[in-house]
Write a structure and sequence with these properties.
Layout (H helix, E strand, L loop, with lengths): L2 H22 L10 E3 L8 E4 L4 E4 L1 H6 L1 H22 L7 H10 L19 E5 L4 E5 H8 L15 E5 L1
Parallel strand pairs: 1-3
Antiparallel strand pairs: 2-3, 4-5, 4-6
Helix pairs in contact: 1-3, 3-4
């Protein structure tokens, strides 16, 4: 690991500690600081591993967008852990999570990032609904192709249709 990567990881840890301290001053405090790793892959910026009190971040995207990660991704995943700790298994981006994001962290409750993915070694596939075009990563695309699932636009409610490789 080079010095830049060490510095980026240190900034992610600092953000985690700062947001953890903010959370600790509320009724939604966690009993222990979550652990952090940098092995998330693909188009996903981060994942909260609920039963392990752990956050996994995407190192490639962190390198490209360090400010976004420290300001948005780290608190986003920490909010998931707090919701699980205090409310159990509820909707991942439900009212409890939105409340922690907006009222505790004073951040917008955005479900997904819209970061450019050109350098994250991600294969994207073009899909379209009735209101716009979007992209799915390889895992979601394969699930659609195998008939395991369909995805619906949360804005217009129409099913996403495959258009081709990007």
């Amino acid at each position: 690991m080079n010095d830049q990567e060490k510095e980026l990881e240190a900034s992610a840890y600092k953000s985690l500690k700062e947001h953890y301290n903010t959370l600790s001053a509320t009724p939604f405090a966690l009993t222990k600081l979550p652990s952090l790793s940098f092995n998330q892959r693909g188009a996903i910026a981060g994942t909260a591993i609920l039963n392990q009190n752990h956050i996994r971040l995407n190192r490639a995207l962190l390198k490209q967008h360090p400010r976004f990660f420290t300001a948005q991704v780290v608190p986003h995943e920490l909010a998931h852990l707090a919701v699980f700790y205090h409310f159990g298994r509820v909707k991942p981006h439900g009212k409890e999570w939105k409340m922690i994001m907006t009222e505790v962290f004073l951040l917008p409750a955005n479900r997904c990032h819209e970061l450019p993915l050109q350098h994250a070694n991600v294969q994207l596939f073009r899909y379209r609904c009735d209101c716009r075009a979007t992209e799915l990563g390889i895992r979601r695309h394969n699930k659609v192709q195998r008939g395991q699932t369909t995805y619906v636009c949360k804005d217009c409610g129409s099913t996403l249709r495959f258009e081709g490789n990007k």
